[in-house]
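step 3/5: co-fold with magnesium ion
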Amino acid sequence: MSEEKSLNFIEEIIEADLASGKHTSILTRFPPEPNGYLHIGHAKSICLNFGVAKKYGGQTNLRFDDTNPVTEDTEYVDSIKKDIQWLGFQWANEFYASDYFDQLFEMALQLIDKGLAYVDDSSSEEIAEQKGTPTQPGVRNQFASRTPAENRELFLNMKAGKYPDGAKVLRVKIDMASPNMLLRDPIIYRIKHAHHHRTGNQWCVYPMYDFAHGQSDSIEKITHSLCSLEFVPHRPLYDWCIEQLGSFPSKQYEFARLNMTYTVMSKRKLLQLVNEKLVNGWDDPRMSTISGMRRRGYPASSIREFCDRIGVAKRDNLIDVGLLEFCVREELNKTAQRRMVVFDPLKVIITNYDNGVEMLSSENNPEDEQGGTRELPFSREIYIERDDFMEQPPKKYFRLAPGQMVRLKSAYIIRCEEVIKDASGQITEVHCTYIPESKSGADTSGIHVKGTLHWVSARHAIGAEVRLYDRLFKVEDVGNAEGDFKSYINPDSLTVIQQAYAEPALATDNREMAFQFLRKGYFVLDQDSSSEKLVFNRTVTLKDAWAKEMQKN
Ligand code: ATP
Ligand code: MG
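step 4/5: write tokens
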């Protein structure tokens, strides 16, 4: 039975607009600035923008907000496109704010001709000072009284490259006494002699965000322009420009940004981590970037599910990263194939087993009826996990100990008969006997044991490197922690196991597959893997799912 989900506030607005006939179709946009890789916060915005449009039969444009030539790069453009598609969304059109530079310039001229914009020669300090404070009105300087003809000429000269950076700006004339500081004659164009990743050296004047963003929305006839809450005070300027220019009446709506525990989510900070080599690139599996999460093995569907579960709020909040991990685990439990890998081996010799090899069969995924089985070689010498054996166990220890029995997953029950040590007293081997009638699936032994261990056949095991990740930061709310955020980096966020012992199926498994290493967590092959060396990333730990799993043997 499907549950009726209540509408979020954006959906309510859209339904009302469709019902009233204000709009007959919905067009949203996702407007990244190509100055970094996308992170989980962007994923929320993508899921919302593409999600609502799709729900109401509409479309979504991808628009690169590339009005700041200094920080932008085509590497970022390519990564952004890849990430959106990987998340499962397809844009209707790929646009660039820089495609509109001519139109935007014309619109600025229109505002000049209407007496609504003027060229100001003041320095940025003077402009800031004349603006006043939230409690004190600003003052207009003498440049505000320039005539439209004069302003037009100066603005064209700005474009022609006659002045150096910062010599002049274009401002719109709104209200120097407005309680909203953003309306105190905001700047809409500045001079910047810089190379742009698309327009090259064609321009030396660039529009400011507020002007470019709203007017780009109108040019594309975006119906609902969804952005995060920090843009609430910008909305009157957004509306003012549209009204004065008579452009398409796009409307801006604001939702809460996603903040998540134990991570940072600002491109500026992520870039610092990359540049200062505190992580291994934008796609380091510890990063909150979409490329990092992909490399770590988070399925795209889990990220969509997470975005769906957190919903669309109107107030900022801090979401527990545990919820994202929960969504990842839920999905992987259904899809990941089970394999066995021993991280820290202890050799077990089964003294009553002959020298042959037996091919056992083990189910790939007990949660998936179609999951099938795989072959698992069993032989006289196997590895188990060193910490699955104790010479002097406490009570209720259900793993291997002298005289005690355990089941080897998908294989036999064994009993520990003898512990072999070297001269220093270190345990080197454990000798066991097996119960031939206890084979999994055909067990007639009548023996019940409480513990089941993962293992690999020593002769068949393949070496693998395993990378275990922990949270990148030691504090929950990194964004609000005092001082330099980098001082909160968790020094133990990466543990590398150089030589683990993996069951042989992993050598030939498809590189894209997700695995559950029994009792160890979910894993994927890392891109650093080669035919000589397998490298696995732990996507997420198991929590306590193991206990249930093992009872079924
Ligand atoms: P950052 O602060 O990480 O650099 P940004 O807002 O500058 O992010 P943009 O490329 O301008 O990054 O963002 C594109 C879109 O993604 C914007 O509409 C923005 O509101 C949205 N967005 C960015 N971060 C988040 C977040 N944490 N939660 C929700 N939406 C976000
Ligand atoms: Mg931005």
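step 5/5: annotate
The chain has 14 helices and 27 strands.
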